Amino acid sequence: MPAPYPYELRKRAMFAISSGERIGEISKRFIISRNTLYKWITLKRETGSITPIVGYQKGHGHIIKDKDKFEEFLKVNDSKTSKELAELWGAKVSATTIRAAIKKLRYTYKKNFLPSQEGRWTKERV
Description:
The chain is mainly alpha-helical. The protein is 49% helix and 6% strand. A two-stranded antiparallel sheet has the order 1-2. It is rod-shaped, with a radius of gyration of 26 Å.
């Protein structure tokens, strides 16, 4: 995501608007789209400030937030498939989300081909 325009540029553009200069001329002089200038005017009207918005979420909002708790859950239920783990986790989580979280923790599912044993989630060796 691109960085917001600097506060000084915003201040100069808003001063030009308040002094009566046309939006089109300001947009050409400062190389800013007119839409951006209109957004700044609206921001000034609503909040009283033209400072850039900060604190917004960056990146994907993860469903499984507590990795330590999930790792403990995985150790307890190490013989379950990702579909079964998704049902047991409780929150509305898909098997794909469970597999992605498991991959981030560097676990793999080891299959045992003996009929008496099941597969297990084990930590990958580095």
